[in-house]
Amino acid sequence: MSDEHPPCCAPARPVAGLSPAPPTATAGSGRHEVEQVVLAGGEFVMGDSIGDGNTGDGETPVHPVRVSPFSIDATSVTNADFERFVADTGYRTEAELYGFSAVFHLAVAAEPDEVMGPASGTPWWTGVRRADWRHPNGSQSDLDGLDDYPVVHVTWNDAIAYCKWAGRRLPTEAEWEFASRGGLEGARYPWGDELLDDNGEWRCNIWQGVFPERNDLDDGYLTTAPVRSFQPNGYGLWQTVGNVWEWCADWFGPRYYKFTPDVDPQGPSLGSGRVMRGGSYLCHDSYCNRYRNAARSSNTPESSMANTGFRTAALIAPA
Ligand SMILES: [Ca+2]
Ligand SMILES: [Ca+2]
Asked: pTM to 2 decimals?
């Protein structure tokens, strides 16, 4: 297949020489309250064995990978979790430092002079001044009622800062895919190969209707859903696919699978974008078919978007 599905991410934030404010709390001092799933590791088949992938995304060649035992969050880090981190450290996210972030055009809640206009190439993304994790749709939005929703508008650098505070790290791309597969070898989705369940109900939060103008809301959500919506996979992880993209530790390399090591791969040693996995509430087959276990995307580490969050991981030391 092909290039029918071009890049769908929000535009990369122009680099302006800012670096993230380091958290002031001691590394590992934080109170990370997200439920952990402990995985024994083992070998799995990584990559797109079905043929759904986009050539440019590098989902093939399919290859066996062995991962060491690790723990991973059952859900994305929520707004309430991130609030504890910020309250403890005074951390300011890069969206706050830069003064803007990318919001989906139908969700913007901002003053007219805060709307910077559509992004070139991906016009459903609008730069919005004062959009940040506390104001996910712009200055006229807030987090009321959103404690258990995934934190968004966090950059890769912000996610790393949270992980340091929590005494954890981002999952590698291989760990993420191992975990998302939930023990099902080669399946398209965390629950199997069919998008809908036997009753025709949605199993994840993506887009229904005509992207990007009409969302029929068949799954119930225009933007984010609470982190424990739908059903967890065989390993007890919720919404790896859909809802929000999730940052991974690795640099993104579209040719990486051709030369990856087969034990605990860590990604290329250099790159310009960091891996994102799982797709989001904006995915629709007509444009972004990346709501699959094998699908890959990336953005620069200082970019933030209304549809991207993260979950954390840690190696399990041998007993
Ligand atoms: Ca939806
Ligand atoms: Ca997800």
From this structure: 0.96
